Amino acid sequence: MAQALKDLPNITKTPNWTINSVMAACCRYDLYNAGDNAAYTAMLQKVAQFKNPSDVFIFMIAEDIAKHSHCQTVSNVMYILANEAITYTFEINGRDDI
Known about the structure:
Layout lengths: L1 H5 L4 E6 L2 H10 L8 H13 L5 H13 L6 H12 L1 E6 L6
Antiparallel strand pairs: 1-2
């Protein structure tokens, strides 16, 4: 059993999102319906700065979206972002061509 675990590959999972994927999630779930264009643009500019968001950064964007949305919680917006706006890339042993 120890040998089998030793032979497992090193897998790196990297989250990715784009302005378009966040915009699509906002449209699909009627988010940012209590914000103005300037605030929405500022939030999307933050998304563009961090193409590989950490959980903390997802929280920060979700908090902004929830603040500018009717009847939304931060945790619900995080769930929406994680399942609708974020995709993942994988590397196996430091390579993405395997």
